[in-house]
Write a structure and sequence with these properties.
By secondary structure, this protein is α+β, with helices and mostly antiparallel strands. Helix content is 34%, strand content 29%. The chain is built from 7 helices and 8 strands. Strands 1-2-3-4-5-6-8-7 form an 8-stranded mixed β-sheet, sandwiched between helices. Helix 1 crosses helix 3 and helix 2 packs across helix 3. The chain is globular, with a radius of gyration of 16 Å.
Amino acid sequence: MELIADFEVQAATQEDASVLAKLIVIAGDGLPLRIWEMMREGDQDVMDVGTARAAREEGGFSYRNADVIRLNDEIASVIVSYPLLDRTSQDDINRAPSLFHPLLELENLAVPSYYINVLATFPHARGLGAATSLLHSMEQKARRANHSQLSLITGDINPARRLYERFGFRAMARRRISKDGWDYAGDEWLLYIKDL
C-alpha cells in the first residue's frame, strides 16, 4: 500500500470484481457492455460476464492488474494497468472483431510501455483527486519496473483528456473508431504517451 496525495492506493482483491466491472463500464463509456454481450452465453447477465472477467487470475481486466482508492470503505476509483510488451500480429488483428482493430493497432504503437487500460471514478467521488493519485501511483510503479513510458488510449470526446494532458501525456496517434453496434458520439481513439 502507498499513501499518495492523502489517498491510500490499494491492490484490488478478487472480492472487488463486481465493483471493478461497474467501473470498467464507466471508463469505457459502455463499450465493455458491447464486448461482454458478444461473450455472453445463453441467458447469462452481461454484468456477470464482466464480473467473471475481473475475477480472473490472468488477463488484462484481472483484479490482479487493478489498484483502487476506497472512500468510507467503498471503492471510489480504479486504475487497471500492466506492462505492454508484445505486439499483436496483423493476422490476429484481422481475426479479431472489427471493434478491436483500431485499439489493437494503437496498442502496437505503444509497445513497450506501462499501459493504463482503465481509469475510472464513480460520479459521487469525482473532483477529489483520486484519479490523479492513481496516475501518480502508476507512474511510480512503472519507474520501479524500469519502464520509460506510460501509455493509454481514450476517445476523442472523453473529458478526462484534460487530466491526462495536465499529467504530461501527449496524443501521439489516432485511429477511427469502429463502433460495430456501440452507441458512442466520438469518432476517434487517441493514443496518449508520457515519457518517464
